[in-house]
Amino acid sequence: MRRKSGGTAMRTQALVKLLWLGALAAAGLEPLSSVAWTDGPARPRAVVSVGPAAPEPLGLYPAHENHPTKKWTATLACQPCSYSLQHWACYHESHAPQAIALEGQIGMTSPCGANWYHNGFFNFSLDGEAGANYAVKAVRALDQGERGSCEFVWELPAAWVRVRFMVVPGKEPLFCSITSHPKSEHVPVLKVSLVAYPSGYFHQGQRVAVTAAGTYRTPARVDLDPAREWWVVFYDEKYDLGVEGGSGGAAGLTDPDLVGKAALNVGSYPLLWTVEAKPGGRELRFAFWNGLNRRNADLLPYMQPRFEPALADLRALDFRPLRYREEALEPLRREFEKLLAETTGPTAAQAAETYREAMARLEALRPRLQADAVDITAEEEYLATLDRLDALLWDLRMEWVFSD
Ligand SMILES: [Zn+2]
């Protein structure tokens, strides 16, 4: 930085710039703050974090004693409801190149460890082949801000499978879409098995599942009418909210337009809800509720009016990441151009070149993201390039603040 005579003026200018950056940060980086710094109400935002794979000791798990495992966690923070998910699997060399999700593929760990199984409530199969026997190819955050989303990606012999979860500010449920991307003309049968332990992990429970057409009590195995029975509320008659630590029940729904078959198996311990896509169907959609903290008598009256609006929301969602769209680059482009024009210094000189190269690379990669075939390498590079640009922008902002 050059020294010059108008020191006070320069400090004032730097202060103004810092305030501008502070405002930017408040708008873009302080998502859950309820403090509005402008006249309007603070815009609600969703924040997503996905941790890297972490080793987990397995202990004396039958047939997998002390095998090494890996665990990923994803948190989607939002108002009024936040959710945490996890995926873990056994990565012992005897399973390579695959891994085995011993307890299920995706677990829901919060807002409540009960109900949707924390170790693996969400499981899929293609033509009867369980996704749990394949190593996950990606666990990653997608959008945050006006909505929050993450995805889990698997590759099976017949197809790639994406499972995307999303929260939307102002909406209660955790929205979900699973899509298969077949590698040939053959579209494998997509089936999802959802596992719940109503109110808690009670072995001698009196589980109840309620749909629009029936009330099913332990023990019950029923085929559902997919057109009518597209939502399920479940609870435990013996272990109501607060009884021996009972968490109270929960609920879920699926988009009936996509469903060919559905069934419930209400056992005394787990409850299993299976949903199969229509023949030739490549997608299923769901919305999940948990942590409702309500007594059994209040659960159905609370949930029933929520299903139709939530189904409309679920149908209207486009699960493709906003981050992949060309328009998403516009604010970044505008700020880079402004700061590069107004900044002198070594970071700016280097940043100009890096910025232009990165933008050209994103343009080249984008068609590969928009194709139906899953191109996981292109997706990873695209997201990493965006992250690098974000980091570069912060370096540039700092130099810009003190640049005259
Ligand atoms: Zn193992």
Account of the 3D structure:
By secondary structure, the protein is an alpha+beta fold. It has two domains: 7-44 and 323-401, no CATH class; 47-317, Beta-galactosidase, Chain A, domain 5, CATH 2.70.98. 26% of the residues lie in helices and 31% in strands. It contains five helices and 21 strands. It has helices spanning 7-28, 296-316, 330-342, 346-370, 376-401; strands at residues 47-50, 54-57, 68-77, 83-90, 107-110, 115-116, 122-126, 129-130, 136-141, 148-155, 159-167, 174-182, 190-197, 207-210, 215-217, 220-224, 231-236, 250-254, 259-266, 271-277, 283-289. A hairpin with a 3-residue loop joins β10 and β11 (159-167). α4 runs antiparallel to α5. The longest helix is centred in the last third of the chain and has 26 residues, at 376-401. It is globular, with a radius of gyration of 24 Å. Zinc ion is lined by residues 64, 67, 90, 92, 95, 100.
Strand and helix map with partners:
Layout: H1 7-28, E1 47-50, E2 54-57, E3 68-77, E4 83-90, E5 107-110, E6 115-116, E7 122-126, E8 129-130, E9 136-141, E10 148-155, E11 159-167, E12 174-182, E13 190-197, E14 207-210, E15 215-217, E16 220-224, E17 231-236, E18 250-254, E19 259-266, E20 271-277, E21 283-289, H2 296-316, H3 330-342, H4 346-370, H5 376-401
Antiparallel strand pairs: 1-3, 2-3, 3-4, 4-5, 6-13, 7-8, 7-13, 9-10, 10-11, 11-12, 12-21, 13-20, 14-15, 14-17, 16-19, 17-18, 18-21, 19-20
Helix pairs in contact: 3-5, 4-5
